[in-house]
Amino acid sequence: MRRLIGTPRQQKLAMTPELLVRMRRSPKIRWSDPRMKIVWAAIFLAFFTISRKDNFSVDKVDAFNSRKHLTRSDVKVLKSGVHCTFRRSKTNQFATRVHKVFALAALGTILDPKAAVEEAFAVAPRARPSDPAFLLPSANGLVPLTHYVFVGSVKHCIQQVGLDPNGYSGHIFRRGGATLAHRLGIDPLLIKRMGDWSSDAYMDYIDPNTPEGMVTLPVAMTRLCAQLG
After folding, report:
1. The CA-based dihedral angle spanning residues 103, 104, 107, 108, taken in that order and rounded to the nearest 10 degrees
2. pLDDT at position 10, please?
3. Cα–Cα distance, 221 to 211 (Å, whole number)
4. CB 43 within 8 A of CB 20
5. Within 13 A of 65's CA, how many CA atoms are on the CB side?
6. Which of 32-46, 158-172, 210-224 has the lowest mean pLDDT?
7. Which residues contact 190 (CB under 8 A, 6 or more apart)?
């Protein structure tokens, strides 16, 4: 029977604001480490802009291409938040358009994307506009943030707060951001646009089994019926 119907795919877990807070407050994670400051900023932007890990990291250290990957000039730290411009992506491989996203500042809070990016940029204050947006200190100087380091660091943080890192993947931020937007009642088409999806595949990233998600339809139906008397 299993061969006929197949084995259900086990979805990876999503990042949540609650998990971000647990990670940030963990005394086991050295957030004062320059490398972790870079990772924290990338985590924040990936989550709050529903982006892919590829938007903020590269496959290999020597794979960075300023015409393809996110550069320092593509990330603008404004008074109101952080503005990112993606010129290429999985759904825009030929740079036929520009995808712009914005992460709003949350001044004075533990989950402030603007403060995180400012700390990360302070690690490499002399970075040129064409340099990688996120540079890590290494024995060979500053190098681009790679997928391996980014995902590995995130899983390390998850493990340090007592969770199984194997339940999470590199899509943790994309899935988490989309699910949070769904919980907040954001229009699915806006979620699709924010996440730069070219198809309805974005629905696979949303976890509908949240308290908010499970009551959305019943509440809407009840309100409509109530209006009818």
Report:
1. -60
2. 62
3. 17
4. yes
5. 9
6. 210-224
7. 181
Q: Residue 43's pLDDT band (boundaries 50, 70, 90)?
A: very high
How far CA 212 is from CA of 49, 186, 218, in Å, comes to 21, 12, 11
- As given in the structure block, the two tokens for residue 203 are 């629905």
Per-residue pLDDT band at 222 (split at 50, 70, 90):
low
Instruction: Quickly list DSSP for 3-17.
Output: HHH-PPP-PPP---H
130: closest CA among 75, 66, 191, 181? Answer: 66
pLDDT of residue 95 exceeding 80, the answer is no
H/E run at residue 86:
strand 81-86
Which runs of consecutive H residues, i.e. helices, occur in the chain?
2-5, 17-25, 34-48, 113-123, 147-160, 172-183, 188-194, 211-227
pLDDT at 72: 97
* Cut 0.90: pTM above it: no
* Euclidean distance between CA atoms 22 and 163, whole angstroms: 11
Residues near 167 by beta carbon (within 8 Å), at least 6 away in sequence: 12, 13
- Residue 146: CA atoms inside 13 Å, Cβ hemisphere, count? 12
Distance, CA of 89 to CA of 69 (rounded, Å): 9
Task: Say which amino acid occupies 85.
Answer: T
What's the pLDDT at 142?
94
